[in-house]
Automatic annotation (TrEMBL):
Membrane topology: Multi-pass membrane protein
Transmembrane annotation, as ranges: 16-37, 58-76, 82-102, 149-165, 186-204, 210-228, 240-260, 333-354, 366-393, 399-418
Main location: membrane
Localization (cell): Membrane
Key words, A-Z: Cell shape, Membrane, Transmembrane, Transmembrane helix
PANTHER family listed in its UniProt record: CELL CYCLE PROTEIN, PEPTIDOGLYCAN GLYCOSYLTRANSFERASE MRDB
Record's protein name: Cell wall polymerase
Species name: Emticicia soli
Keyword Transmembrane helix: yes
Length: 428
């Protein structure tokens, strides 16, 4: 029988304070992003007014505290025992969203209930993390076995396939974060290496004609055969393997062209064009990134000061309180403020990984790595797209970006792990 514990003693307060710092700083910057010096009275009622994003975010933050309380007081065994049931429910919800959601900017991923909108894709990452942790922690299951790896892969990539059907490619791409979890659980290094190679190949297909890349692949295969394989290793079996690599790489090159031109939406295609050539559409698809970079660079070392950002005040950057919240940080808080935010995130990720390694339960350890991987992927891509190093795929910066769906999903993701960790030192 589980020993009753005082959750105040079991909870990792360092992680809680890091979470609180990010949420509070995010709220300050959301207010800055929608700040109007002529209309604002600087009163508390003005700050929490539901007429603008800062007030609604304040409501989301308050609701998050209630979610935290629910998570912490629910029996921790629920997250393990009902993981598959939760997964089945979210799959049905994602499918239903395709037919029930209101179309917004070409995407059918938001369910509207009165004035409130909710995006199931955000919560699906949390539930997939639970289901994956449940499966990989099952006795006898190993990611090194092809069958088990295949089942885990289907479990992870089924939700993003449905999300892509909702025309919400950005949210679907975030599921790639789970590959890091596979690697931590024993997936041979060759597979992540192949993944990196495919990413590099994808980037090359954006810059060079297809047939140039095919010729380059042929040359690389030939060099590998004659220069790196010793004479006694030039067997028929290795030749067939090399031919297989060539075929797969070639199919990937042509498949990339099909994906960009047939699967992605026109605005997403524009974003990739802007990534390749930032000046190709400076007043259209390139506007966000260009203005974001201007805002961040104009902040200098110490920033222009809170509520003093000119790019912010005059709405040069669209979506500045959501996907591009980091440019508000860069403009008003400067390099030092941006560095502090990144360091807080780094401290949070380091703390989660350290706690994950200390878990006695395999389920808790795997889930901890899921949390760290998802947060890191969002951090990397979101900041990367605000400074022009990543395509604009529309994913939020954890805990800082405006939005109830994103804040609640990240809060649930993190505090389920803290709940599991709180029972680490107690025998069951």
């Amino acid at each position: 029988m589980a020993r009753d514990i005082d959750i105040r003693e079991g909870i990792d307060w360092t992680t809680v304070w890091l979470y609180g710092a990010l949420v509070f700083f995010g709220w300050l910057n959301i207010y800055a992003a929608v700040y109007n010096p002529e209309a604002s009275t600087h009163s508390f009622s003005d700050i929490i007014s539901l007429s603008h994003n800062a007030g609604r975010q304040f409501m989301f933050i308050v609701a998050s505290f209630f979610l935290i309380l629910i998570i912490l007081f629910v029996d921790y065994k629920v997250y393990d025992s009902f993981a598959y049931i939760f997964y089945g429910i979210i799959i049905l919800v994602l499918i239903g969203t395709i037919f029930l959601a209101t179309e917004i900017k070409g995407s059918r991923s938001w369910i509207k209930i009165g004035t409130f909108s909710f995006q199931p894709a955000e919560v699906s990452k949390v539930i997939t993390a639970l289901a994956l942790s449940k499966y990989l922690s099952t006795q006898g299951v190993s990611i090194t076995k092809f069958r088990d790896a295949f089942v885990a892969g289907v479990m992870v990539f089924l939700p993003p396939v449905i999300i892509i059907m909702q025309k919400e490619t950005g949210s679907a791409l975030t599921f790639a974060a789970f590959v890091a979890v596979f690697y931590r659980e024993g997936l041979p290094g060759i597979y992540p290496a192949l993944g990196i190679a495919l990413v590099i190949l994808f980037i090359f297909t954006l810059f060079f004609p297809q047939w140039y890349i095919i010729i380059g692949i042929v040359v690389l295969c030939a060099l590998f055969w004659y220069l790196f394989l010793k004479r006694y290793e030039r067997t028929q079996q290795n030749l067939f393997r090399l031919i297989g690599v060539f075929v797969i790489a070639s199919l990937f090159v042509f498949g990339t062209d099909f994906f960009i031109n047939k699967v992605l939406q026109p605005h997403q295609q524009k974003r990739i064009q802007v990534l390749v050539n930032p000046d190709s559409d400076p007043l259209g698809a390139g506007w966000n990134v260009t203005q974001s970079r201007i805002a961040i660079s104009s902040g200098g070392v110490i920033g222009k000061g809170y509520l003093q950002g000119t790019q912010t005040k005059f709405d040069f950057v669209p979506e500045q309180s959501t996907d591009f919240i980091f440019c508000t940080v860069g403009e008003e808080w400067g390099f030092l403020g941006s560095l502090i935010v990144i360091l807080i995130f780094a401290a949070l990720l380091n703390r989660i990984i350290n706690l994950a390694e200390k878990q006695r339960s395999k389920f808790s350890r795997i889930y901890g790595y899921c949390v760290a991987s998802i947060l890191f992927f969002h951090l990397l891509v979101n900041i990367g797209m605000t400074i022009g190093l990543m395509p604009v795929i529309g994913i939020p910066l954890p805990f800082l970006s405006y939005g109830g769906s994103s804040l609640w999903s990240f809060t649930i993701l993190l505090f389920i792990f803290l709940k599991l960790d709180a029972h680490r030192s107690y025998k069951v």
